[in-house]
Write a sequence for this structure.
C-alpha cells in the first residue's frame, strides 16, 4: 500500500522540482502527440468533411473501412510501420525509426481514422435546418460547405480531443517505433512501462498521475466542446 | 401584371407520399397570402418550394414569368424562408444577422444589422455581441427573423413565426413583419395557427389538405362519412344528428367544399319552402378580414367548424357574438365536390 | 484553403526540425533490459560522451529483439548477453568484431520454504529437483539473454525445457515482472543478480523469493559488444561502433564498470582481458 502513497508524493516532488527526466518525457509526449494531432487535423478534417458532406458512389464502403480502422490494434500498426521505416524497409532511407517523427507516423495512422470518422459523423448528423438556413440566407456551393464546416467546428474539436487522448495514452506504437530512448523518444507511457520493468512502481505511479492530469485537461476541452456542439 | 409566382402542375413527392400537388396557383407582388390547413397538409413543403429550396418533381414553377428550376443563387436571394424552429449559426448575434448581408456583397453590414435588430425589438448594443446560445426561444426567433429582414427580400416566407414564442416576442415578430410589408412592399406568404392574426393581415388565404389546394380563402371543407349511392343525392350525417344534403357524388370525391359567401346566417330558424340545408350551431370565433373587408364568422356545428362571411353591418344588426346560437342555411347545389 | 495550406507547411517544418535534431553524431545501440534497468548505462553514458564526443542512444529490449534490430540495420552496435545466440549471429555474418566486456551472474530464486529442497545444490541438480517435485518454475520465455541462459541450463541438466508441463510458467515479460510472478506463485525462477538486488531493495528486506543457488560457474552471464556488419548494412555507423567497442574494453572503462555499485554491491565484473 505504501508505494501508492509514495508514488503520489513523488509525483508532486518530480513535477515541482522540475526533474529533468520527468519533464523530458512529458515534453516528448506533448511534442509527439501535438505533431500527430496537427497532421491528423490537417488531413482528417477535410477528408472527414468530404466523407460526411458529399455524396459519391462507394461512400458506404469507405465509411465501413474508416469505422473498421477505428479499431486498429496499436501493436499491428506498430509492426507494420516498423517494417516500413526500418532501415531495411522501403522507407528506411528517411531514418524515421527511433525518432519522434517515426512515432508520430504511427500515431497518425492510429488517430487519423478517429478524426475522419468523428468529423464525418458530425457533419452527416448536422441539423437539416442548418442547410436550409444557409441556403435561404443566400449561401451556395463553396460558401455553403465552408459555413457547414465552421458550424461543425466544436464537433471537430471533439474529434481532435478524442484522438489526442488516444495518442497520449498509447504505449505499444511509441515503444516499438520510438524505442524508449532517454531524452529523445521516452514518452510518459513508455517511461511508465520502463519504470514498472525496473520495479520502480512509485515513479510509475508518479508518471501515471502526470498522464492523468494531461488526460483531465484534454477531457475538459472535450466536455466544453461537447456542450458547444450540442447547443 | 405578371404574377410573382406561378405554379403549374407542381408535384413534390417524398418517397411514395405526395407531399404537394398544386395544379395551379398564382401569387402577385405585394400580396399577403395566408396558408391554412391541418398538420401535414403540405404548407411547409409549399413554403420550401416557393423559397426555391425544394424543387418540384413535376410541373413548372415560374418566378416573375421565368422558369425557376433549377434555382440560380441570384433567384434564391429573391425569397427567404423563416423556419418554424429557428436555427442560429454558432456565432454572435451580429454575425447571424450579418451573414446573408455579407453574402450580398455588403462590406459594412453594421447599419443594416442594427436596423433589422431594432425592427424585431432587440436592442443592438445589448444583443449584437451575444453568443447564439445566450438567448431565450422568443429572442432566437426574433434574431432569425432579423437575419431575414436585413436582406430586404422581395418575398418573405414565414412558417409559424409566432408558434413557439412568448406573447411579447410574438407581438414584436408581428410588428416587424408588418412594417417590412409597409416599408419595402415585401410579398408575404405566411403559415400560422394564429388564425385571428392571419385572417386580419392576409389579403388572401389558401387552404391546403393532403398536399392539395382545396380552397382559396376560408373555403369550408365538409369532410366525413358521406353516403354515396349511384344517381342519388349525397348525404352526410353530422355528429349531432343533423344532416347535410348534396348533389349526387361523383366517383373519387371525398369531401364537400362550400364557399363562406354561400351560407346565410340568421338568429331565427329560416322560413321558405325551397329545399335548403338548415343547420343549427354556435358562433365560435369572429375574424376581421382586411382583404375582402368582411367579418368571417366561425360557427361550430357538431364537430364541424363552418366559416360564414358577412359584412360588419350585418353582424352588428343581427347582434351576433361568440356563444350565440344561430341558424345556417345554404342551397345543396352550392356544394362542390373535392377529392 | 489558405489556412489549411499554412497548417500543412507548418507541420512539415516541425517534422523536419524534429528530424534535424538527430543530425549530431549519434551512435545507436540495442541492448538488454538488464543494463538499462540496473542504471549501468545511465552511469557510463556521460563518460563515453566526454571521451569521444559521441552521443549514445540505446534501445533496451530482450537480447533476441536486440539481435533482430541489428539484423534489420536499425542500430549500429549491440551490447548483449547470450553467447550461444551471439556466436550464431556472428557466424551468419550479421555482426563483426564481437568482444567480451564483462559478466555478472545469474541466481536461482525460490521461496524461502524451498519445497523442492534445492538450496546449495549445483544448478543442474537443482533444476532436476524442481522438475521431480513439479514445483512451479517461472521462465521469461521471451528469448532474452536470461531466457537463453535458462534453456542452456536445462540442457545441462540433461533435459529439454519442460515447456508443456503445467508447472512450467512462461511469462513472456521482463525480469522484474517474472520475479513478481514467481513470488505470487511460490515458484522458482532464474534471474540476473542485478535485477534481484533491486527487487530485494524494493521489498524492504522481506522478499517473497530468495537466492537459493548461486556461484555455480554455469551461472556466469557474459556480456559482449558486437558491431553490426557494415557489409550487410550500408547505413550503419561502423566507425562509431568500433570506437564504442574500443572504449568499452579499455582499462579505464573496465575500471568504471568494476566501480559501479547497486545498493552498495558490485554488479558487473569486467573481463575484457580474459
Amino acid at each position: 500500500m505504501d508505494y501508492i502513497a509514495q508514488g503520489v508524493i513523488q509525483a508532486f516532488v518530480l513535477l515541482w522540482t522540475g526533474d529533468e527526466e520527468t519533464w523530458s518525457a512529458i515534453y516528448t509526449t506533448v511534442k509527439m502527440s501535438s505533431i500527430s494531432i496537427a497532421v491528423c487535423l490537417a488531413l482528417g478534417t477535410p477528408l472527414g468533411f468530404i466523407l460526411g458532406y458529399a455524396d459519391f458512389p462507394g461512400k458506404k464502403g469507405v465509411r465501413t473501412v474508416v469505422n473498421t480502422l477505428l479499431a486498429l490494434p496499436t501493436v499491428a500498426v506498430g509492426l507494420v510501420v516498423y517494417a516500413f521505416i526500418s532501415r531495411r524497409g522501403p522507407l528506411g532511407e528517411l531514418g524515421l525509426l527511433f525518432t519522434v517523427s517515426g512515432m508520430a507516423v504511427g500515431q497518425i495512422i492510429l488517430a487519423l481514422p478517429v478524426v475522419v470518422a468523428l468529423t464525418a459523423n458530425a457533419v452527416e448528423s448536422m441539423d437539416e435546418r442548418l442547410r436550409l438556413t444557409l441556403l435561404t440566407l443566400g449561401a451556395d456551393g463553396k460558401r455553403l460547405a465552408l459555413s457547414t464546416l465552421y458550424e461543425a467546428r466544436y464537433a471537430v474539436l471533439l474529434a481532435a480531443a478524442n484522438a489526442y487522448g488516444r495518442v497520449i495514452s498509447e504505449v505499444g506504437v511509441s515503444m516499438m517505433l520510438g524505442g524508449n530512448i532517454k531524452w529523445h523518444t521516452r514518452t510518459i507511457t513508455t517511461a511508465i512501462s520502463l519504470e514498472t520493468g525496473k520495479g520502480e512502481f512509485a515513479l510509475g505511479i508518479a508518471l501515471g498521475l502526470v498522464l492523468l492530469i494531461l488526460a483531465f485537461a484534454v477531457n475538459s476541452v472535450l466536455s466544453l466542446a461537447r456542450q458547444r456542439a450540442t447547443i | 401584371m405578371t404574377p410573382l409566382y406561378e405554379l403549374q402542375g407542381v408535384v413534390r413527392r417524398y418517397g411514395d407520399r405526395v407531399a404537394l400537388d398544386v395544379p395551379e396557383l398564382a401569387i402577385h407582388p405585394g400580396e399577403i397570402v395566408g396558408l391554412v390547413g391541418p398538420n401535414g397538409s403540405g404548407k411547409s413543403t409549399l413554403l420550401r418550394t416557393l423559397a426555391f429550396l425544394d424543387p418540384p418533381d413535376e410541373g413548372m414553377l415560374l418566378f416573375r414569368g421565368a422558369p425557376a428550376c433549377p434555382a440560380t443563387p441570384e433567384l434564391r436571394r429573391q425569397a427567404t424562408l423563416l423556419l418554424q424552429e429557428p436555427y442560429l449559426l454558432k456565432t454572435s448575434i451580429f454575425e447571424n444577422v450579418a451573414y446573408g448581408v455579407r453574402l450580398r456583397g455588403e462590406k459594412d453590414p453594421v447599419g443594416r444589422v442594427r436596423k433589422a435588430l431594432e425592427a424585431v425589438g432587440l436592442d443592438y448594443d445589448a444583443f449584437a455581441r451575444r453568443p447564439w446560445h445566450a438567448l431565450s426561444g422568443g429572442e432566437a426567433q426574433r434574431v432569425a427573423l432579423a437575419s431575414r429582414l436585413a436582406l430586404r427580400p422581395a418575398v418573405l416566407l414565414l412558417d409559424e413565426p409566432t408558434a413557439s414564442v412568448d406573447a411579447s416576442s410574438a407581438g414584436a415578430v408581428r410588428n416587424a413583419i408588418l412594417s417590412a410589408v409597409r416599408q419595402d412592399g415585401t410579398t408575404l406568404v405566411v403559415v400560422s395557427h394564429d388564425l385571428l392574426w392571419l385572417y386580419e393581415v392576409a389579403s388572401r388565404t389558401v387552404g391546403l389538405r393532403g398536399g392539395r389546394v382545396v380552397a382559396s380563402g376560408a373555403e369550408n371543407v365538409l369532410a366525413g362519412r358521406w353516403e354515396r349511392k349511384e344517381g342519388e343525392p349525397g348525404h352526410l350525417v353530422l355528429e349531432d344528428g343533423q344532416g347535410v344534403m348534396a348533389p349526387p357524388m361523383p366517383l373519387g370525391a371525398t369531401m364537400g367544399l362550400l364557399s363562406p359567401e354561400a351560407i346565410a346566417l340568421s338568429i331565427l330558424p329560416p322560413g321558405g319552402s325551397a329545399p335548403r340545408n338548415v343547420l343549427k350551431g354556435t358562433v365560435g370565433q369572429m375574424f376581421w378580414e382586411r382583404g375582402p373587408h368582411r367579418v368571417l364568422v366561425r360557427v361550430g356545428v357538431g364537430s364541424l367548424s363552418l366559416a360564414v362571411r358577412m359584412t360588419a353591418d350585418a353582424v352588428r344588426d343581427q347582434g351576433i357574438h361568440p356563444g350565440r346560437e344561430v341558424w345556417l342555411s345554404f342551397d345543396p347545389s352550392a356544394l362542390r365536390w373535392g377529392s | 484553403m489558405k489556412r489549411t495550406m499554412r497548417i500543412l507547411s507548418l507541420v512539415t517544418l516541425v517534422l523536419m526540425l524534429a528530424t534535424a535534431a538527430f543530425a549530431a553524431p549519434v551512435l545507436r545501440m540495442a541492448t538488454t533490459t538488464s543494463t538499462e534497468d540496473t542504471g549501468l548505462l545511465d552511469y557510463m553514458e556521460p563518460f563515453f560522451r566526454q571521451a569521444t564526443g559521441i552521443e549514445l542512444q540505446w534501445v533496451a529490449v530482450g537480447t533476441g529483439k536486440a539481435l533482430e534490430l541489428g539484423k534489420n540495420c536499425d542500430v549500429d552496435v549491440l551490447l548483449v548477453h547470450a553467447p550461444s545466440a551471439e556466436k550464431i549471429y556472428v557466424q551468419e555474418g550479421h555482426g563483426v568484431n564481437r568482444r567480451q566486456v564483462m559478466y555478472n551472474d545469474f541466481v536461482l530464486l525460490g521461496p524461502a520454504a524451498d519445497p523442492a529442497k534445492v538450496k546449495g545444490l549445483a544448478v543442474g541438480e537443482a533444476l532436476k529437483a524442481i522438475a521431480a517435485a513439479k514445483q512451479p518454475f517461472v521462465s521469461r520465455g521471451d528469448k532474452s539473454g536470461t531466457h537463453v541462459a535458462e534453456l542452456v541450463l536445462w540442457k545441462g541438466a540433461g533435459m529439454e525445457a519442460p515447456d508443456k508441463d503445467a508447472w512450467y510458467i512462461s511469462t513472456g515479460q521482463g525480469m522484474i515482472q517474472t520475479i513478481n510472478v514467481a513470488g505470487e506463485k511460490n515458484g522458482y525462477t532464474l534471474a540476473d543478480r542485478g535485477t534481484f538486488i533491486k527487487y530485494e531493495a524494493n521489498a524492504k528486506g522481506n522478499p517473497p523469493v530468495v537466492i537459493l543457488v548461486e556461484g555455480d560457474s554455469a551461472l556466469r552471464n557474459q556480456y559482449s559488444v558486437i558491431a553490426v556488419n557494415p557489409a550487410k548494412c550500408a547505413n550503419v555507423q561502423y566507425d562509431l561502433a568500433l570506437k564504442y567497442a574500443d572504449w568499452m574494453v579499455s582499462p579505464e572503462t573496465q575500471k568504471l564498470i568494476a566501480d559501479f555499485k547497486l545498493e552498495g554491491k558490485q554488479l558487473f565484473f569486467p573481463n575484457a582481458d580474459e
